[in-house]
Amino acid sequence: MQRVETRKRPNLQSPPMPAPSRIEQIAERVERLLVRHEEVQRTNALLQDQVEALTRERDALKSRLAAARTRLDALLDQLPTDPTQDPSSRS
Question: What pTM was estimated for this model as a whole?
């Protein structure tokens, strides 16, 4: 059997980066968590503003509803009790 000589190819890839240490991994994760925490805080503040605005709107609508009910009750009180009765003959 004849032996075929193979030539070693030059390594064209960059040397592998050393794996980050456990502390570096934890530090990166903490950084990502801090960024996420800030995002959640901003989102929470925006949602809280929306809740407050919607609460004010609800309260204003409840007030308008109560006023409308009062006006309707006053109008209903002015209606004759007998639907056949002429409103001009009321005393």
Answer: 0.56
